[in-house]
Amino acid sequence: MEPINNAGGNAPSGTGGQGGGQGGRRHFPHRGRGRGHGPRVGGQPGSRPLNQSRPAVPGRPIQSARPSLQPRPMQPSRPVPQSRPMQSARPLQHGRQVLQAKPQMRSFGTGKDKLRIIVMGGLEEVGRNCTLLEYGNDIIFIDMGLQFPEEDMPGIDYIIPNMSYLRGKERNVRGVIVTHGHYDHIGGIPHIVPKIGNPPVFGLPVTTGIIKKRQEDHPGAKLNIKEISVDDQLVLGAFQVEFVHINHSIPDAVGVIVHTPIGTVVHTGDWKFDFTPVDNKPADFQKMTDIGRRGVLALMGDSTNAGQPGHQVSEREIGNTLRMIIEKAQGRVIIGTFASMLSRIKQIIEFSQENGRKIAIDGFSMKTNVEIAKALGYIKVKPGTLIDINQVDDYPLDKVIVMCTGAQGEERAALMRIANGDHRSVKLVPGDTVVFSSSVIPGNERTVQRLKDTLYRKGAEVIHYQMMDVHAGGHAKNEDIKLMLLLFKPKYYIPIEGNHFLLCENAKVATSIGIPRENIFVADNGQVLEFIRGEGRMTNEKVNTDYVFVDGLGVGDVSEVVLRDRQELAADGMVIVTALIDAKTGALVSIPDIISRGFIHTQDNKKLMDETRERLKTILRDHDPKSAPDQTFIQGKIRDEIGAFLFTKTQRRPMVMPVVIEV
Ligand SMILES: [Zn+2]
Q1: How far is the centre of ligand 1, averaged over its atoms, from the C-alpha of 564 (Å)?
Q2: Mean pLDDT by 10 residues, the chain (663 residues)
Q3: In angstroms, rounded to a whole number, what is the distance separating the alpha carbons of residues 301 and 182?
Q4: Which of 233, 368, 575, 622 pairs with 646 at a CA distance of 20 to 30 A?
Q5: DSSP labels for 138-205?
Q6: How far is CA 217 from each of CA 57, 190, 191, 210, 348, rounded to the nearest angstrom?
Q7: Number of helices (H) and strands (E), helices first, in the chain?
């Protein structure tokens, strides 16, 4: 059994189920009345002070010149002599380069011999993971993810890392290394990479497969995607990069080892240890030990499940439970899970095959991921096992499995439509077994509960992870983290990937095995960490990490001001007041017109409408018929006074939009 809130890390990629720009959850908050500051007046977008949040990704063209030392994928690593001094990268045949030997810890002065690590996202939230390493004129990124919007961000699809810091430094970016194919690690790529000089993007096959697929939604920008293997080594300016195989809920997840002139920095990506994984080998403990023995300056580690005791459950154990459920089920089995959990999906497909059932997949991103995994040979399916979702009725109930997205109660996802009877092909019948093979992302509890209510009402057998072990997270728990720390033996530990409290929990794990507290850096997004001559410190320097919102096709064009308008509209609606005035005198020509949207139903509130009209007449009474009317003044007056009037009458603060027309 797993505690209810273990889900964090899979959230973004999971809810990314719908994929692309339309995929974000949309929440319209129902806020209490108490918010705000007295009667809210005004209402025209832009009429209020514009604070912070500039669009981060500069729209101007970027210099295309790339430095001569181009990063390229390496040949499979061969053992490197430990004692030889580090050579500078030299080109090999076929334009390849190889890391010759372990880097030496140079000891030199301050100034430019400084390694800066800046985590641009993922230190204050789950998602938007993005880490920047900078040494001299060389910059590399590890991951460039998206974050799904909070409840108070209506209409926002997702949020991407802020790249203001890179302005003027675009030509220094040597590459973007991607740890795995989840949206909270790749989601910013289509928006950011083309604007920072199109540096190469490195990832293992499943990762690059998903990045390429997603790029089809952004045909304008052609990326330079380099598929690598876990044994490859890269030379990216001053950085020499290798990889270590770790386990996660998706194949081809790696940890990244960056040898810098100051020392070695290891970034775990999302990880867990799985001794019996279903899609790959256990994590490469040998390599971790080896790297640890050679000395690790800093380890950056996933915090998602750091607050939980014990070891993460193996994916295979979950499989055993799922297999049992499938074998025992008399009728149809409908399994809701995250599209991002390819390892789980693979198992479910295999079990259907074993059980002589056909399997239909519903959910765009789930289907896409299965296609990618099939093409790469990660999922092997006999012909005829996978059927189209509209063929489910062609088979007896006990010969069918439906696997779909929507286990978080997402409104438009397959499981919700099945439950509500809106699904075009799958109608729920008593005796169906519905399995929630995912934990509930904090914040989604109520929707999931309602979804379960509907399923129970319709006679389905509902199984979720609190009843049986049908979900294991892809993230390390306490004891796993301890083992990781003991293998790498880092001098400094930098908890990443999680809300602040999760970083603190992760830090606690590190202190519990003897890492001094002062060597653990719990930083905020954008806080610069500096390493000089093998010593690290958290500085007070902070780069801009303000939200960059993606809404439909717009990137960074939705500012805090626009968002606040949306919040206000969502909370209290709007009132449009149209007044015709005499162009010469300013006198009201006819009775003002009032339109309400989301505030009150005007037909049912005739009295209030009449009172408002009377009020408008008073406001617009012309005290100075000899002078021409002042539009701005009149509009402001309507906003202020009608706003205040409606607040006293209703305790609501609709956005008041005056339209004054001179005739
Ligand atoms: Zn992940």
Answers
A1: 31
A2: 32 35 34 34 34 37 37 41 35 36 41 90 94 97 92 83 96 98 95 95 97 90 94 97 96 97 97 91 97 98 94 89 92 92 92 93 92 92 93 95 91 91 93 89 84 93 74 88 98 96 97 97 98 96 93 77 81 88 83 88 88 87 72 88 91 90 87
A3: 17
A4: 622
A5: EEEEEEE--BPPPTT-TT--EEE---GGGTTTGGGEEEEE-S-S-HHHHTTHHHHGGGGT---EEE-H
A6: 19, 9, 11, 12, 28
A7: 15, 26
pLDDT of residue 318: 85
Ligand 1 centroid distance, CA of 554 (Å): 26
Length of the chain: 663
Q: Give all strands of the β-sheet with 239-245 in edge-to-edge order.
A: 234-236, 239-245, 254-260, 263-267, 296-302, 490-496
DSSP characters over 374-412: HHTTSS---TTSEE-GGGGGGS-GGGEEEEES-TT--TT
Task: Reduce the DSSP state of residue 529 to 3 states and report it.
Answer: strand
**271 CB contacts (<8 Å, ≥6 apart)?**
246, 247, 248, 253, 255, 283, 302, 474, 475, 476, 484
Structural element, H or E, at residue 301 = strand 296-302
* Cβ proximity of 654 and 575 under 8 Å: yes
Alpha carbon distance 171, 373 (integer Å): 34
Q: 248 CA distance to ligand 1 centroid (A)?
A: 7
628 Cα: distance to centroid of ligand 1 (angstroms): 64
What's the CA-to-centroid distance between 222 and ligand 1, angstroms? 25
Q: How far is the CA of 177 from the centre of ligand 1 (A)?
A: 14
Q: Please give the DSSP secondary-structure letter assigned to residue 349.
A: H
Nearest to 196, CA basis, from 141, 131, 277: 141
Neighbours of 300 (CB within 10 A): 28
Q: Distance of alpha carbon 525 from its chain centroid, rounded? A: 15
Tell me how far the alpha carbon of residue 653 lies from the centroid of ligand 1, in angstroms: 41
For the chain, the farthest-separated pair of C-alpha atoms sits apart, in whole angstroms, at 94
| CA angle (443 as vertex; 441, 447 as ends), nearest 5 | 90
Q: What share of the chain is helix, strand, coil (3-state, %, to 5)?
A: 30, 20, 50
Instruction: Find, among 622, 538, 542, the residue nearest to 579 by Cα.
Output: 622
- pLDDT (0 to 100) of residue 585: 80
CA angle 402, 404, 408 (to 5 degrees): 135
pLDDT given at position 42: 33
Active site residues: 302, 475
Q: Which residues have C-beta within 8 Å of that of residue 106, sequence separation ≥ 6? A: 113, 261, 262
CA 550 to chain centre: 12
Contact 70, 235 (CB under 8 A): no
**288, 231, 296, 206: which is closest to 260 by C-alpha?**
296
Exposed / middle / buried, residue 285 (Cβ in 10 Å: 0-12, 13-18, 19+): middle
